[in-house]
Write a structure and sequence with these properties.
alpha/beta, three-stranded mixed β-sheet, elongated
């Protein structure tokens, strides 16, 4: 798709092209179980996240992260500006025409119903950020509007990664809420949460993929939205910041 945009641009220099890619913050997550990558900190989308992904990819290839790198590199080669929206856990039902659910929470709910109780990998102490799908839609709308207006403030290329956090949770907190809601609705036998191993989590939630289970269901990944170009959206999410 990026190469196609490049061809369009080269055939008519008056055409304005821009590629928006959707990614996720498991790319930045730590390894609390296997501890193969313990250098984790609170990231900011004003940092060069692309450079971090490149250095991390050398030691630990990860399909979603690999794709980010290919997007940026291909955009640079084809002279197509690229912007990546790297979101944390997305929750809430979407209103689109196709897929209306995200991955992590619905997957954990389905497994809880099948097994009769909620589960968490290990102690579940890892913190992740979250964003409601309706809030995330506003961010996409704002990015697209700025691109159409040819606003130079839209980050692109190596610095073109935007976060979208609007809150946070721990895996234990999430599992406990699944347990409480499931028990209240009569879908679960108990509201208690069972601790499981990484292997068990992988079998339940990631098709046996240990790396994906640890990065996507057990890790720490904190990624606050800091780009000044989207400060107006932050005030919509958190009106108290205006003071």
């Amino acid at each position: 798709m990026i190469l196609g945009l490049g061809d369009r641009k080269s055939s008519d220099s008056t055409k304005h092209v821009h590629f928006i890619h959707t990614s996720g913050t498991s790319n930045l997550a730590d390894h609390p179980i296997t501890a193969t990558a313990s250098d984790i900190h609170i990231f900011s989308d004003k940092e060069n996240i692309y450079a971090y992904e490149n250095s991390r990819e050398v030691a630990e290839p990860y399909a979603q992260r690999t794709t980010d790198i290919v997007v940026v590199n291909t955009g640079r080669k084809a002279s197509v500006p690229t912007t990546i929206l790297m979101s944390p856990t997305i929750y809430g039902p979407g209103s689109g025409l196709f897929n209306q659910l995200s991955i992590q929470i619905p997957t954990m709910i389905r497994t809880a119903i099948a097994k009769g109780r909620a589960e968490v990998i290990g102690a579940g102490a890892g913190t992740w950020d979250e964003v409601h799908i309706s809030d995330l839609v506003l961010l996409y709308e704002l990015v697209i509007a700025k691109i159409l207006a040819k606003d130079p403030a839209v980050p692109q290329g190596e610095m073109g990664i935007i976060f979208s956090e609007a809150g946070d949770f721990t895996w234990t907190e999430l599992s406990e809420e699944i347990g409480k809601a499931g028990r209240k609705l009569g879908a679960l036998e108990s509201d208690s949460v069972r601790e499981i191993s990484l292997q068990e989590g992988a079998e339940s939630w990631s098709g046996g993929d240990l790396q994906l289970a640890e990065l996507g269901f057990a890790s720490k990944s904190v990624s606050p939205l800091r780009h000044a170009a989207f400060s107006a959206l932050l005030l919509i999410w958190f009106p108290q910041l205006e003071d």
